[in-house]
Amino acid sequence: MQTVEYLVVGAGMSGLGFTAWLRAEAAARGRPLPDVLVLEADDAPGGYCKTVVKDGFTWDYSGHFFHFKHKDIEAWLRARMDGEVRTVAKHSTIRVAGTDVDFPFQKNIHQLPHELFLTCLHDLYFRDEDSPDATAGSFKEMLYKRFGRGIAELFLVPYNQKLYATDLDRLDQDAMGRFFPHADIADIVRNMRAPDNASYNATFTYPAHGAIEYVRALLREVPDDQLALGERLIGVDLRRQVAWTTKRELGFKRLVSSAPLPRLLAACGVEHDTSAFTWNKVLVFNLGFDRKGKEGLHWMYFPDPSTVFYRVGWYDNILGGDRMSLYVEIGADKDAELDVELMRARVLEDLAREGIIAGHQLVAEHSVVLDPAYVHITRASMAEHARVKRTLEAAGVYSVGRYGGWTYCSIEDNLVETRALARTFGPLL
Ligand SMILES: Cc1cc2nc3c(=O)[nH]c(=O)nc-3n(C[C@H](O)[C@H](O)[C@H](O)COP(=O)(O)OP(=O)(O)OC[C@H]3O[C@@H](n4cnc5c(N)ncnc54)[C@H](O)[C@@H]3O)c2cc1C
To answer: In the chain, what are the domain boundaries?
Structure first.
């Protein structure tokens, strides 16, 4: 039986990141390069960070835009990239009751029609700290308590309900972590005279050839013979440290997996509460049209439940180009049956109703379902994750990444996490 020291599952940002960092760690310590094998079920690397190029349009699996907090990580990636990386000052809006309000909504209620503005301001000031509309400690309660009924019910609740495809009472109050734009009354009132819509990605970067450029940067550090594409992990014997793939049996000393946690647990035969792990899936349509549409806008949020999508973004306003290039995202329950043709027809109908297309001809398209897309971070999922993590790690198995760690994060977070893990193995190299 073939044996490897480090068996890595998944060649997305996390799996490739871990492999690259581990090699860097060995090099920094003057140690031999580690014996690693990366298994990737798909025929191509990249995971959700893939880019599709079709008929002159460049699309990601879903809009992937970047704002690196760790400048050393960004510089490390850039040093391994050839093409241009654009830096863009974000312009995103929210369509509420026929009006376009700048993001973040809670800081721009003064842009609403007068009556709605008064409702939001009144409810913000007199917000009920006891929040009778939501379960204590839930994401929904946090929204009502911090912002009052008006802001919650006009945007924050319907939008997030559409995105997560679940009742927000189920989610933990910190389900979005640092990605939730917090604002207090002083910020909101100050913003009425001196706009400061700073958020974690007020400016963002984007490679001219798509998000896959970050994957290519990592691939430069991963030798071809350490990457096995089209090979899926199907089972693991934790006690014997043996893994089964669709092609072979492999012994390992450590296994680092970025596969979705519930699937890894099933493969390892670890008993767990399956009801603790729920998620949404996202159907993404990438659409190319014959001519330009709105200019200057990067993406737009749609909280209205009667509009099928929750977000639409314009690649052509980021990359340049004289033809409108859109991504359109639809949230759905993990068990929902998605009729892609039917959804496509609804998307085109709703794009026309919202005035995004007006007689435009669709000339190119692509669609993909991201499943899982947004995991539901609940008290139960956090407790179960902490418990199974201990069981797995005791057997040399590390579950990382957005879906392995059952979390809400960016590709930068994937790289920060896997670098830290690679460093803990440094003394063993
Ligand atoms: C709608 C949406 C928008 C996003 N926007 C942004 C953004 O703007 N900026 C940003 O930084 N991040 C964004 N993200 C997050 C980003 O996509 C993730 O953080 C990142 O791609 C996760 O990488 P990963 O390697 O952890 O997981 P994945 O990309 O899911 O990679 C896991 C890999 O494991 C493989 N795999 C799974 N099971 C097995 C198995 N049994 N055997 C072998 N291989 C297996 C999969 O095929 C996959 O290639 C977004 C995510 C979503 C869903």
So the answer is: 2-89+208-273+377-428, 92-193, 280-370
